[in-house]
Amino acid sequence: MFISRDLQNYILNSYTEDGDLLPSEFEKEFNIDYYNEDFREVEFYDKPLNDLRVLL
Q: How many domains does the chain divide into?
């Protein structure tokens, strides 16, 4: 699976020196308090896709 560097940074969580979680830009933009990262799936497409069968 290919993920662009920008997209990877957009969804990446970081931590303070004390180990506290800092939300990703994705979480901030969509006002998400928590989601289980084990179920996260991301893929980057170079061209826009309109076919839902391909997207799923």
A: 1
Euclidean distance between CA atoms 45 and 35, whole angstroms: 23
3 pLDDT band, cuts 50/70/90, is: low
User: Which domain does 29 fall in, by range?
Assistant: 5-55
DSSP H helices, the chain, are 5-11, 25-29, 52-55
Which pTM value belongs to this model?
0.65
More confident residue, 51 or 10: 10
Question: Do 16 and 22 form a contact (C-beta atoms < 8 A)?
Answer: yes
